[in-house]
Amino acid sequence: MFRYFTRLLNYFILKAKNDNIRDFKHYSNIEKIPSSIKSVRDKLEEIFSDSVDFVLREIALGENSEVKILIAFIDGLTNKQTVNTNILRALMIESRISKLNREVNRETIIDILKENLLSIGDLEIIDDFKQTVEKILSGDTVIYIDGKNVAFKADTKGWETRGVEEPETEAVVRGPREGFTETLRTNTALLRRKIRNPKLKFEMIKLGEQTNTDVCICYIKGIANPDIIETVKRRLKRIKIDAILESGYIEEFIEDEPFSLFPTVGNSEKPDVVAAKLLEGRIAILCDGTPFALTVPYLLIETIQASEDYYSRPYFASLARFARMLAFFASVILPSFYVALISFHADVIPFKLLLSVSASREGLPTSAFTESLLMVLSFELLREAGVRMPRPIGQAVSIVGALVLGEAAVKAGLVSNLMIMVTALTAISSFVVPPMGGTIPILRVVFLIAANILGFMGLFLSIFVVLIHLCSLRSFGVPYTSPIAPLDGMGLKDSIVRFPIWSMITRPKDITSNKNKKVEHRMKISHIKKED
Amino acid sequence: MIKINKILILLLMIIFNVVIFTACWDNKDLTEKAFVTAVGVDRTAEGKVQLTLQIVKPTVMKAGEQGIPEEEAFWVFTTVGDTIFEAAKNQMTAVNRKPFYNHADLMVIGEEFARDGIMDALDFWERNHEPRLGSDIIIAKGTTAEEILKAKSDMEKIPSLHIKSILKNSKELAKVKKVTIIDVLKQLIQPGVSPAIGAIEIVEKEDLQKIEDMKIDSTAVFKGDKLVGWLNAAQTRGLLFIQNEVRNAVYNVDNPLNKNKKVAIEILDSNGKIDAQIVEWKLILSIKIDAVGNIADQQGKGDLTTKETFKKLSRDVENAIKTDIKDVLSIAQKEYKSDIFGFGEVMYRRHFEYWKQIKDDWADIFSNASIEIDVNVKIRGTGIIGKPSEVR
């Protein structure tokens, strides 16, 4: 039923998109750069009217100042030093000192500029006016020449950026501490530094009609499945939206099941995590303006995997994974389990425990369900407050949370002691599996209601429903519950138990292309033997 | 097609669930329930059934945690009705909460009621979904169940838990016949065996009765579902040996090397078997006990760690066990004429054709049958020392 509606909705979304695709031809029309510098100037001034950060500079070259040149860039997006020394100084002073100025005329200007004057690494000749405007907007300096239909684009990008810092969301005890930044180029560099291999590809695409945000598809050619790469590109190209301010915008467009509670697109702030996923054959989508990179396909098992598992020894890593799995179940089920036990199945509680439980519940006006709901919701409030609060007020929140909701609620006779413990365990557990942060609270409340209506039966029914849904999910064509269902024997080595790294000689079967796998397999084995 | 399959699987799962989780269909909070820990059944003078419930007061349990155990943590309530069910429902008119029988782990039956037949009490237990068939059952010897359940305990806040722990500990030492309701029901419907149930009696009658003043070491003997008599402590031990329920027992025998001094032998394991054979149209009943023991305590001097003394000691223990067994056999055969050992059950299983002919006369046949007793005790060790330390 749900699936049917999803498909129906997908159909309309896709139909609307297809209608829009026809409009793209309009954008692909090339608009020639006017040969007269005056009209270029007029045009630019019209486009960038009322923009104080737009800089236009006109210089004349040649013995009799016959060749006019127009330099356009946006102040703040460009590296001032590069513009001043490598462009302005070169054109205005060095050309004269070196007497190159005398040779400049309308015929030789392009060659001289390209080969002698502009000492910029990334220099390009463009003949499309629209493109020059885009370049100006992305921080390049564009040099228009009078009487020519072409312009130079010099890469002078340089703006205030945050340095490479340790990400706050994915803290590690052992492992690299660097994290992505808001600048796309830095992020690609961070990845390139981890994987020094020409097969690592970065493909650019511009998204967002108003923002023209750079989005980069990264993959390792030969490892990533070409079909999945194609799917990613196809889905990205279909996106028609005003703005891409964060990778979350893209995530919602390329998800397999937009209405599922479970994430089918992963994200990470750490280059080592993304590099590891690329090496497994996954595809990363970097987005300018956010440190969060998306990775696809994203499977359920990845929610309990952490980068640190691979940096610490296998026993501890397996234990940690087991704890994460336990935490996932606990944080979803615990409150509903409590309600089912108290309200329906008091017969299965051991007698002495039952006595202490009922003693703590004695005189409470609320039923087990009401108090569970109360505590679960107030915890959500606290958590949200903790995230949004300015740092200095954070302490006040924690005091109010601990004292008012913990101590006082019991003293006031609103909730029982045991409920406080259940809530605390639930809360702690829900932080152990961060990727499921958006799924757990909703499932928890749904399960709670089911448990209040039907007891254990309701709880287990809802678990079955969730399991069925999980089995039907796919992420970019890969079954969501792989490698457990469908079973992949080799894949299990990196699931709940993490085997030693030297024993992981194959890549995930469902993600990488099969043809490729065997070669890699043999290579890796021979490599290990050589080491011995 | 896939859709139909999915719906089918979902339906299957729902049915599967319905079958599994058929326990309680009732959303009732703990605060709306009264936890019954023990149930007593008596016969009143007018012939009605009197039901006694021992109910826990959670509020007092809570107060007790904070160190002010002022009140009793339990509350005993009695109602009368023509049937147990009616009595149980009459309870609701006085108790403000719904009695919750799931944790009623002890059932006490008054002597008067037991003499009329305990099946009247057990049917309610079998028929209802709440009470547990695994709860212990015990007979109040010479008194009513109400008296037993009203008694207080110094050790436990809830007296029924005290009785239950005594039952458990005594069972370990082969001092009581501990049975559960399901055991009794099984024996009642099985041809050729009558139940024997542990009994509790009040030793000193006092105003404020306490569990500590009670004794749980005798056994009630039934014939069918009616109480016919009692076994004392030694006879109870004999019964347990025959029924292979001895895990640990203590026998004191004379020190073979030092007159007037005793040696304690601890029986560590016992394997009891009963058998019924028909040889040349004659019924032969036999009992075979294989036990293993240890010297647990020695009074007096002498090195007991020789072959001869071991033999002597084991012969003495064998004789002591034999005495117990003979004792219980004679009282069951001659006085009560009740086959509490299950010889009839063996007949029913092994010699069904023969059993069909004699089943109506089994009580007579049993009480006149001669029974062979073979007891074999092996003494294995002497603890961590050999001969005793000598006083000089």
Automatic annotation (TrEMBL), chain A:
Key words of the record: Membrane, Transmembrane, Transmembrane helix
Family annotation (InterPro entries): Spore_Ger, UPF0353/GerABKA_families
Membrane-spanning ranges: 322-344, 416-433, 445-470
Entry keyword Calcium: no
Domain of life where this protein originates: Bacteria
GO cellular component: membrane
Any one Pfam family match given in the protein's UniProt record, by short name: GerA
GO biological process, one term: spore germination
Homology family: Belongs to the GerABKA family.
Xref: PANTHER family: LEUCINE ZIPPER PROTEIN 4, SPORE GERMINATION PROTEIN
Protein name per its UniProtKB record: Spore germination protein KA
Automatic annotation (TrEMBL), chain B:
Gene3D superfamilies associated with the record: Nutrient germinant receptor protein C, domain 1, Nutrient germinant receptor protein C, domain 3
Segments forming domain Spore germination GerAC-like C-terminal: 219-383
Location of the Spore germination protein N-terminal domain: 26-202
Compartments where located: Membrane
Membrane topology summary: Lipid-anchor
Pfam families, sorted: Spore_GerAC, Spore_GerAC_N
Keywords from the UniProt entry: Germination, Lipoprotein, Membrane, Palmitate, Signal, Transmembrane, Transmembrane helix
PROSITE patterns per the UniProt record, alphabetical: PROKAR_LIPOPROTEIN (PS51257)
Record GO biological process: spore germination
Keyword Transmembrane helix: yes
Signal peptide: none
A cellular-component GO term for this protein: membrane
Name of the protein: Spore germination protein KC
